[in-house]
Amino acid sequence: MLWRPGQIELRCELIDVLGKLGRERVIAAECEELLKLVHNHPGVLLQVALAFEESDQIDASLMALRRLIALQPDHFDALQHLRRLQTKRIPPWHFAMMNDEPRNRAYEAALRRAVTPDTHVFEIGTGSSILSMMAARAGAARVTTCEANTQIAAVAQQIVKDNGYDDIITVIPRPSWKIDVEKDLGGKADLFVAEILSDTLLDEGILRITDQARCDLLKPGAQLIPHGVSAMACLVGGEALASTTKVTEAAGFNLSAFNRYIPASLSINSDSRELLTLSDDIEVFRFDLDQELPKPEQRDITCQAREDGLCIGVLQWVRLYMDEETIFENRPADRFAPSAWRQRLFPFAEPITVKKGEQVDFRASHNIASLAFDRRVV
Ligand SMILES: C[S@@+](CC[C@H](N)C(=O)[O-])C[C@H]1O[C@@H](n2cnc3c(N)ncnc32)[C@H](O)[C@@H]1O
Fold first, then answer.
1. Residue 221, phi-psi category: left (phi > 0), alpha (psi -120 to 50), beta (remainder)
2. For atom 4 of ligand 1, which residue has the closest CA?
3. Mind giving me the DSSP string for 212-225?
């Protein structure tokens, strides 16, 4: 088929507009038409892929790149674009998470204690399927797991098969809120496991997602792993940390006007920065996942400075109550192993100088989906 100049741009624009209107099916048909027009023109396919990417049509862009790679399997640019787009779909932290041995051990220990030969385990967010396979290895009768990302679900299905658990584990390529308790689970499950926890605890939606599962997909009183999660925090400071959140003078210039953009929070690796811990650990919010969904909350915290120093803000990390025996946390101090979860720094709008023994106040809040910490405005 011949293509005329302008035709491709027009179709790309149309796809962009349809995308904004949320017309997925029409977009898919339009993409097919467009790709038919340019199917044997590698240069144009690359342009089309880039145009799709620019208008945030990632599936369409992937489709164009795959066509191009089918034509020219060693097309360097197409292969690199494909990897870049796939990284948008499959976040790189999956690898550190799968290799996080302390985290894996904590989950496996709790699963081994909870699973019996009659247990039907339900998991949300299978990723590589590692937790489901742990449940199967612990002897569960069956395991049903779901995954919202269809590409990840496909690889999970392959991994389950590669490890010989495909007779026990069913991977459903759908988000948890689209699971039908009868059709998909064959009735409510006995045991729940999930790791849908971000560095900042709540941002992956653990509270709402678990609450829906508890109400609709689990037997009354079913055990949850973890059954509780907490936002842990302490005051931190030090010059090294200050340089990541604040600017005064650099190269002889006064740059302090930039401080109006001090971030609300940022992830840090406590082992890569010199951290000055200025208070004891504080369990700021504890959420019991086997109880009703909590309400948003604001809490005023008063703690005591452990030593003199420049306090930059609040450092937050996660604590998981796996079961009665096992607690996991990525505490910044050295008595816990480093983890794929990073600690999150919530810098104060203005650092404060603190003296040992002095009382320091800050405010913490959550709105079910995210956390915030800052100095209290009095
Ligand atoms: C942090 S990863 C954990 C993966 C794996 N369970 C593990 O422990 O290594 C969370 C996964 O859950 C998926 N996910 C998040 N919310 C989901 C939901 N409501 N339903 C299904 N999958 C979900 C994400 O796509 C992601 O792959």
1. left
2. 127
3. HHHHHTEEEEEEEE
Do 229 and 201 contact (CB within 8 A), yes or no?
yes
- Cis peptide before 338, with omega less than 30 degrees from 0? no
> What pLDDT is recorded for position 52?
80
Q: Residue 284 belongs to a domain with what CATH number?
A: 2.70.160.11
| 98 within ligand 1 shell (Cβ under 6 A) | yes
Helix (H/G/I), strand (E/B), else coil: 256: helix
If one counts the domains in the chain, the total is 3
Question: Which of 134, 146, 176, 196 has most ligand 1 atoms within 8 Å of its beta carbon, as the pocket-test mutant?
Answer: 196
Cβ–ligand 1 contact at 131 (below 6 Å): yes
Per-residue pLDDT tens digits for 206-265 = 999 999 999 999 999 999 999 999 999 999 998 888 888 999 999 999 999 999 999 999
60 plus 19 within the same structural domain = yes
Q: Are 191 and 107 in contact (CB under 8 A)?
A: no
Structural domain including 156 reads 95-195
> In this predicted model, what pLDDT tens digit does every residue of 296-323 receive, in sequence order?
999 999 999 999 999 999 999 999 999 9
Q: Residue 135: exposed, middle, or buried by beta-carbon count in 10 A (0-12, 13-18, 19+)?
A: buried
Among 95, 99, 107, 126, name the best residue to mutate to test ligand 1's pocket (greatest count of ligand atoms within 8 A of Cβ). Answer: 126
Indicate whether this model's pTM tops 0.70: yes
Amino acid 118 reads D
Last residue of a domain, one of 64, 89, 114: 89
Integer CA distances (angstroms), 159 to 66, 152, 162, in order: 23, 10, 5
